[in-house]
Amino acid sequence: MSVEVDLLLQEAKESIEAAQNYRSELQQRLHGLNQARKQIRGSSGQAREALKRHFTELQAAASRLLSERLAGLLAEVDAIEADSIKPLDDCQSLIEHGVGQADELLREGEAALRCGLGEKEDKLGSFTKKAMHIQLDSLPEVPALVDVPCVSAQLDDSILSLLRDRVSRHGSVSSHPPVQIEELQERPGSILVRWCKVDEDFAAADYRLQYRRSGSGGSQYEDAYIGRDCEFLVLHLDPHTDYLFRVCARGEGRTEWSPWSIPQTGFTTLAPHEWRSGTEGYILSSRKNIALRNDSSQSRCAVLYSDAPTYFCGQTLTFKISAAGQIDRLDSLGVCIDTQSGEESLQRDQAVCISTNGAVFVNGKEMTNQLPAITVGSAVTFDMEVVNLLPISNNNLSEGGHFKLRVTIGSGNREVVFDWLVDQAVDCLFFGCSFVHSGWKVLVF
User: Fold this and answer.
1) With the CA atoms of 361, 366, 368 and 372 taken in that order, what torsion angle do they form, in degrees rounded to the nearest 10?
2) pLDDT, position 363
């Protein structure tokens, strides 16, 4: 009996635990539904406000443009009327003056005919001289109606059909943006953002990535990238700080951008790559990620190392050359197990590097394979992964190491791949550079 009771109790406990898990899962799904409903209602409200605001502004702008055009056309009518009426007014004044002279001459002539014989000769002589002075046979020319303006307005009703056609196609409403952020991958002092199309019918010509700090005190979104690639490394980010990222696209032959993707939050816990301060012969930027080889040192300079071993296997380390000086075979860009003061190049033991002439060195030995020479705009990348841990024995100690790293160095469109044996297990590495001549400027990320 007790065994049956124990079994029932065990089944009851399992059922209770299953019910609790079931309830928890359902509550999580309810929360997901609430979030989805909130997004739908929130985005719909924002879309309504955007449509109302846009079309209100459009109506005001159209009304203003029509009023300005009407005022301009009325001003043209006023100008034509004023310019055309003035000569008619001048002609009218001349004619009215002639009519007044003729009336006065008629009165004098009639008075001369009615006067007595003693005065008639003098008055008739005076009247005759005045008539000759007025030139009664000279008449001003009045323009014919065909020679004066007949003002009219030409109005093309086709603008209504054109406007109706454009308005009917103006704006659109979409339930999903054509592109969404696919992955946020943390990098030292940066985040690699990848995105993809979710609308296969949308032909994208360009993508636009923006980001900003998260939280109420966050700044406005700012552009990080515009181009055809579907990924971009956003630099100069503060570790342990949330950032919001969003992306949109522009269709082939279009000027307007698509709706923004749903913002995604990302952050990096990795400290940014920084050059070490105080190395003679080098000037650093404020963020210490850019180094310039200056000419302050007349002799050869020591290697400029990173401030800390911030490069981890599995990451990509990139050196971007923004200015170049004279090439020397002792120049080097690379990574190393430790920092050795006084060394003038990374072409030494416990380091792998590439020279500015394209030669690759492993533990101080030059490889047969060579990469293109480094110039302005070159980007040199280092990728490493742990291959295996070789057991320590007399045999592999004679081989020079028991820790194997698979190294890939890329420059231009070429790369070299090799295994690097080191004598100790490492999980992080220093990076460094050395240039014999001044003028070299390198960004690390």
Assistant:
1) 50
2) 93
pTM for this predicted structure: 0.64
Question: Burial of 380 by CB count in 10 Å (0-12 exposed, 13-18 middle, 19+ buried)?
Answer: buried
pLDDT of residue 297: 60
391 vs 277 pLDDT, higher one: 277
Residue 390: its pLDDT value, please?
55
State how far the Cα of 221 lies from the Cα of 240, in Å rounded to an integer: 19
Above 80 in pLDDT, residue 111? no
pLDDT in the model for residue 395: 47
